[in-house]
Design goal:
single chain, three-stranded antiparallel beta sheet, 8 helices, 20% strand, elongated
Length: 359
């Protein structure tokens, strides 16, 4: 028998013992009086009340027995997420239906944050690492099972400062990505590895993008997710000021005026050819993301997915419901008896009229 008290055991005793003592005393008194109708409740009623008090005390202690199992689907997979944090990722062409004031669209980073949450939920038990890249690639979060840390890290991501930007390559993360996958393989060779690349594919340097094919042999799956539109979206200057981001194009912290080009707002457009090429190099699928569209994620490799049973001693079978049924039955008995007494008292209060009249 295992107890999981709702209150501290000492407090349960202080609540139950006085009431139990009074009920036992009344039971003894009723037994001595005998089953007299005029002497109040009889021994049977008080015996049931003693059982009711005991049952309430047991319910507060939450009894259970060992042997319950909780089966959860766990994935022995390492998932590396690479996110583009160049200035173009604040382009306002996500959710172009106009969800913000004035009809303006949200930033692309809004969609990135939403999709990272979906990826974290899709692979329970997996370990996640986070890489961001703009002018440089940085490992923001090493492999961890703490999905809360992953989501929090993505929530506070800010793009590079506009005035410091000198162009960037969409393949700059290839070396760091390969190193992260190699380290994961050495540490846990039996685990599968997946990569998700999130970006707009816009190459802003004159050189060709670095290839990702060196990481392909280390992967078991993943995907490339593209953000942006062919029409493009305007970008606000990012100043690097400290403050919480709203995730929208109309008022995120550290955001200045719209970037200008030849007298009008500069537009950033998605380059799906580049994104498809990255997907081919990695050996994964490409998906263009739009607001409201369902994200299609590949399943974790079946060889690394299994049901995990927790220690039965830590997951006992709760028996409180049985005690609760006993309490309900005893309370129903009390209610039925009280109803009968009320009906009887009302019957006694109605006296028949006198057969004679006034003299």
């Amino acid at each position: 028998m295992i107890l999981q008290p709702v209150l501290a055991p000492l407090l349960v005793m202080l609540l139950v013992l006085p009431v139990l003592g009074a009920a036992v005393w009344m039971l003894v008194s009723a037994t001595r009086r005998g089953p007299s109708a005029r002497a109040g409740a009889g021994p049977v009623i008080w015996a049931l009340r003693v059982v009711l008090v005991l049952a309430c005390g047991v319910l507060l202690l939450r009894p259970g027995v060992p042997g319950g199992h909780v089966r959860t689907l766990a994935s022995a997979t390492d998932v590396v997420i690479a996110i583009d944090t160049t200035a173009s990722m604040v382009a306002e062409d996500w959710n172009t239906g106009g969800s913000t004031k004035g009809g303006a669209a949200d930033q692309r980073m809004t969609g990135v944050r939403e999709d990272v949450r979906r990826i974290a939920e899709a692979y329970p038990g997996a370990r996640f690492a986070l890489i961001t890249f703009d002018a440089n690639a940085v490992l923001r979060l090493p492999l961890t099972t703490d999905t809360g840390a992953l989501v929090s890290a993505v929530e506070v991501l800010q793009p590079e400062v506009t005035r410091q930007s000198k162009g960037s390559s969409i393949g700059i993360a290839n070396t760091l990505l390969t190193q992260t996958l190699q380290n994961a393989q050495k540490a846990s060779p039996d685990r599968a590895r997946m990569v998700f690349y999130l970006g707009d594919g816009e190459q802003t340097v004159s050189t060709e993008p670095e290839p990702f094919d060196s990481a392909k042999k280390l992967l078991s799956g993943g995907g490339v997710l593209g953000y942006g539109t062919d029409e493009g979206g305007p970008m606000r200057e990012t100043t690097g000021a400290v403050g919480p981001s709203t995730g929208s194009g109309t008022g995120s912290a550290g955001a200045g005026q719209y970037i200008q080009y030849q007298g009008s707002d500069a537009l950033s457009r998605i380059d799906e050819k580049n994104l498809q090429r990255i997907a081919t190099e990695l050996g994964v699928t490409y998906e263009h993301r739009t607001a409201g569209a369902k994200l299609t994620l590949p399943p974790a490799p079946t060889s690394t997915t299994a049901y995990r049973e927790d220690d039965p001693l830590t997951q006992p079978t709760d028996l409180s419901w049985i005690v609760a049924l006993v309490i309900v039955a005893l309370l129903c008995t009390e209610i039925a008896r009280a109803t009968m007494l009320i009906v009887r008292m009302r019957g006694l209060s109605v006296r028949p009229a006198s057969p004679g009249g006034d003299s």
